Amino acid sequence: MTENLILVRPSLDWEEELLAYKEAFKSEHMYGGAGLYKFDRLSDWMVYLDRLSKDKPAEEGWTATVFLCIRQSDKRMIGICNVRHHLNSLGLLNVSGHIGYSIRPDERKKGYAKVQLRLALLEAKKLGINKVLVTCADWNIGSERTILANGGVYEDSRLDKSTGNMMKRYWINVTERNSI
């Protein structure tokens, strides 16, 4: 059942799951993974996440709260999501949006992304973000369905110059959603 997912803050208590999650992406890029793939040591990633979570522009120029999505029944890490507090750069406004997420490759097509995004929207609402921008590459049909299932309203598509992808941009008004 997909409803037994929870979001937790990353910590070294989840080291085994984090390493397994990272390994699961060895043959593909980990979009929405809060930069996990860039770090050889989890402790360095934790320092990076701590810096991102400060409510002042980090070195990257944006603030985010990162969560691990855990299946309660077996404590398996199903996904990672990050909630960016402000759209304070053109990259966030045009390409990345408020929320980025990924689902472990062998757990896709089970409804987990839909639930994880709903949980991330709740976190955005707690931060006072009432209108949330969520984006996906035009080729990512699964992510598009996830966004639409959570009330996404299409605005437009914009080019991500760094990847060449056209990014579909959707807005979700969390104050109008009864289920959030």
TrEMBL record:
GO terms for molecular function: acyltransferase activity, transferring groups other than amino-acyl groups. The lineage of its organism: Bacteria, Bacillati, Bacillota, Bacilli, Lactobacillales. Residues 49-151 form the N-acetyltransferase domain. InterPro entries: Acyl_CoA_acyltransferase (IPR016181), GNAT_dom (IPR000182). Signal peptide: none annotated. It comes from Streptococcus mutans SM6. This is N-acetyltransferase domain-containing protein. PANTHER family: ACETYLTRANSFERASE.
